Amino acid sequence: MKLKLPKKLVLLLPLLLSGWNLFAQTAAISDTFRVSLENNYEISSLNIIPFSEIILINNSPLGKNEYTISYRKGSFSLNDITRYNIGDTLIIRYSSTAVSLKKEYRRQVPVFRYDKNAKDTLIVVEPLSRALSAESIFGRDINKSGSIIRGFTIGTNRDFTLNSGLRLQLSGKLSDDLELIAALTDENTPIQPEGNTQTLDEIDKVFIELRHRNFTGTFGDIDFFDNSSQFSRVTKKLQGLKTEIRSNDGNVIGSLVIAGARGKFNSLDFFGSDGNQGPYRLTGQNNERNIIIIAGSEKVFLDGIEMTRGENYDYIIDYSNATITFTPKRIITSASRIHVDYEYTDLNYSRNFMGVNIRSKAFDDRLSLGISYYREADNQDSPVELSLTDDDLNILKNAGDSGTDAFKSGVRLAEPDSAGNVKGLYSKRDTVINGQHYEYYLYAPGSGSSEYNVSFSYVGEAKGDYIKKGLGNYRFVGPGKGNYTPLIFLPLPELKQITVLSAAADLGKDVNFKMEFSGSGYDKNRFSSLDDNDNYGFARLLKLEIKPRDMKLFDINLGNIGLNFKERFIDSRYTTLDRINEVEFNRYYNLESDQKGNQLLREAEITYKPGGRIALNSSYGFLKQGANFESNRFFSRASITDEQNYNIDYTLDYVSSRNGSLNSAWNRQNGNAFYKIYNFRPGFDLLYEKKEEQVSDSLINSSYEYREAAPYIEFISGGFNIKGGYSVREEFAARNNRLIKQSEADIKQLSLEFNGATLLISSLTLSLRKKKYTDEFLSEGFTDSETFLLLSKNRFNFFDRAVSGDVYYQVSTEQSAKYEKVFVKVNTGYGNYIYLGDLNNNGIADENEFELTSYDGEFILITVPTEEQFPVIDLKSNVRFRIDFSKFKDGVLGKYLKPVSTETNWRVDENSRDKNTANIYFFKLSEFLNDSTTINGTQLFQQDVDLFKNRSDFSIRFRFLERKSLNQYSNGIEKGYLKERSVRLRFRMLKELSNQTEYVNRVDNYAAPPITKRSRNILRDELSTNFSYKPARKIEVGFKITTGRSTDYYPEVPTIIDDNSQTIQFNYSFLNLGRLRIELERIEINSGANENNIPFEILKGNIVGKNYFCRTYFDYRITDYIQTTINYEARIYGKRRVIHSMRAEARAYF
């Protein structure tokens, strides 16, 4: 007997079974209405359980006969017997079954639109919901840009890897009062941006910021800045949360920041050196060298003036190597005062930062109060790239606040390998110096006596026993003659705290009074409680300001007068988070940077403007620091200024100081004047300094004097600006209790700018400085110097673009070092080298143990500068110009040479130690690429001659390319020479069929130390022809044949390699959507019976024999905002197994 179920029940049975739990759930619902004339009320829920309802009017329940309800429609109405008034409150409470269905489904909705043509309101139908788009996700008022990337990589010899990326920028209004600004990414790039532009592309900066008139909240990367009071000055690069709250009237502002600090602050002062534009090294607070500068955190000052970053401005900075180099626009001498503020990371401990700042105003902004608290601390329990043992912790606990006591020996016995052999890098040796016995360590990897691995630390010039020769290679030079020692200094985790109370009052009639009180705490070693009795200090500031106001006597206007007075006291134990003084504060008062003790500063200033363009300023300052140091400063300045026509400015600065038995008198004067005559502006600069320091009436050698006079003239007319100047400087030094002439220097300068619209744009900056010492100082070891700086940029476009190009020339004297090759491990597939293992069993990875590869590389090659630097002259030049004879409209050239076009590129770079610098900047090429003087250099010349370049049916290109190079690495000199001559022919045989045939003759020579195994002397001839057939618009089929012979003449018996390849290509285009490309390639390499080492430049990652490749590239645009890419490759080397690799990726754009 068969049981038959009704068809409707059969259809409903799965729904009933799958949704049993859903239908078994109920919910209590309450809806509220206002009684209306329509007298029809719809419940909000999708359904109502019959007889579960309770209806109330004005909180009085109704009987069943007072209303009518439709359970199917979900609506009810009041009966006539019910007593109610329009507007009464009507409440219905009922039970409903919870189902995941909507009450209504619709894709279109009728809307009212006013038609201007019909002059009437019409009902039109519009889609209720639009397709997925950026606007539907983020909203109409949000500006957005960026992309989301998701993909994977998989292969035969690599693990499955997920690839993801998010880059999203948002800005706009979330509501009328709330604004959003965001930059989001999930990528973490360890590469520092290049410091050669004015603005940085901080590719990893991530933040979300919400703005309201009463608050601002930022989460992510924060550029934090506080300059509300002198003691609370802070500038930090942070990662965390920052909020700011403002009252409606703006009188109360509070901010809170809780974040991780990306680095710690340091401030460095040093003098430049003659003939050296850089690089100048920046160090950590404790002279650490292995630091990374936080990108964009630096402020660079030259002679007290802030500089601008960028190749076209004042300086460039290498953040990773912590070095700074000045451009030719700023000439650096031994008298150049360089000051740099920056943040850096040493990757020792993670660092936290917290800050609270509250500001309040009252009495119509006449009184303002503020309180600030900041805390910056290393997390001693969270080291970054630091591993501390129990013994290390004990050393740190017993070191107290002294970093010089927190050290351990850098010498350790090498661990035996699996065979029990001890392979160290250093061996212990004995020597006798000046009759005293010393033990030292000799770098000798691979030696049987090398049983030690030694770590060294930089301790300062002439404070160590070793010098650094290369990565891991240190050489003993004798006690006090080096800058490294075999010790490991353990970093101390520190804690800084600062609290500032401030008040400012407007006393009326332009009189302001301000005071600040601050306390600080500085624990130099959070691991140790020793020396904590000096952690806390305090400071105070009182300041009275009378703003400039007109003064009258018997109705006679005496001019504009202003007064200022400041007193500041800083306890010797007080510390700050940032620099609070002016950049040249120590110079102003002749204060040594290491001067200890309490500091008391009093300053008074008066400004006077008698009228017109005359301004006078005078100030007096008194500084006392500790028990021994006192300084009095007298400063005056007078100026007469009309910015457009004339200017006279003169400054007198006199400082008298005493430091124990040392008395000093320092006189500084400078002046400037110019006067405009038509388009000419002649001017004059004057500098004078005399510093006499005496001990018991005897002049000591730190005394000096200099005088400098610099006339100049400037011409300005339209787009043309030229300025020329000449300066003479005499310097005097103390010898035998008097100042005698030490040197004389002169500078010739020329700057030019010309903007001739599209015809010619040119700029030039030239500085030539020569400094000569007197015979007495030459005998002491001083040497004459010469500085040559030139930067020229030119772009031209002549004869209606028939001749165009650009010329770049830059030369400067600076310091340079030899470079050392370092192999850095990366993820498989992202490198171009593989490591073959420790072939010589010396315990280190030598260069010859790395091999180039085209696929699956695990290492990349970088170069790092060695320690020893040399004075060099650096030249960078490039000339590039194009001639298109078809654009000569008239004449013989346009008539007979119309099919011809040429492009020439000549580039010369030379970094040389040649003492005759004129050989370099005057292009004496015979002295370039010199084994004894060149640090690194490259010369490239390329000449292209095209016939019928812009024709698609027939064209010919002739090319000549020559490149020479020389590099001095730490392990020797490497020289390269490449010469290539080629001819390329393109022609179309049929409408659907075209061909490109090319012949190349190439010479590739490279000479390198034998350990590198990179030397070669290759001559190659290659012929290739490529046919392209397009039977339809969407389809293209290609067939390429290449044959060639390479001969390496470097071995005694030359290596002869014959190769041939055949490639079949198929391309299918999805019009405006994507492309599919399939490529099959066969490469055969024959070497005969030769067993020589075959250079990578010949094999290019293939093996001798037959190599097969199958490649598929597919990219498709699903929508306007979504792009997919799939790449697949299979390759076979000889009879080896097939190696597969695939990468798939999808990108969504906003």
Q: Helices, strands, pairings?
A:
Blueprint: H1 7-18, H2 20-23, E1 26-34, E2 41-42, E3 54-57, E4 60-61, E5 67-70, E6 75-78, E7 89-97, E8 108-115, E9 120-127, H3 134-138, E10 142-155, E11 158-173, E12 179-185, E13 207-211, E14 215-226, E15 234-246, E16 252-261, E17 264-271, E18 280-281, E19 292-293, E20 299-302, E21 305-306, E22 315-318, E23 323-326, E24 337-345, E25 349-362, E26 367-383, H4 390-399, E27 407-409, E28 411-413, E29 426-433, E30 436-443, E31 452-454, E32 457-458, E33 466-470, E34 473-476, E35 484-485, E36 487-489, E37 495-508, E38 511-523, E39 536-553, E40 556-570, H5 585-588, E41 599-611, E42 614-625, E43 629-642, E44 646-659, E45 662-675, E46 680-695, E47 698-699, E48 704-717, E49 720-735, E50 738-756, E51 760-773, H6 775-778, E52 785-798, E53 803-825, E54 831-835, E55 850-857, E56 859-884, H7 891-896, E57 900-912, H8 918-921, E58 934-947, E59 954-969, E60 972-988, E61 993-1007, E62 1016-1032, E63 1035-1048, E64 1055-1070, E65 1074-1086, H9 1096-1099, E66 1105-1119, E67 1122-1133, E68 1139-1149
Antiparallel strand pairs: 1-7, 2-6, 3-4, 3-7, 5-6, 8-9, 10-11, 10-68, 11-12, 12-13, 13-14, 14-15, 15-16, 16-25, 17-24, 18-23, 19-24, 20-21, 20-24, 22-23, 25-26, 26-37, 27-36, 28-31, 29-30, 32-35, 33-34, 37-38, 38-39, 39-40, 40-41, 41-42, 42-43, 43-44, 44-45, 45-46, 46-47, 46-48, 48-49, 49-50, ...
Signal peptide: 1-24
Keywords: Signal
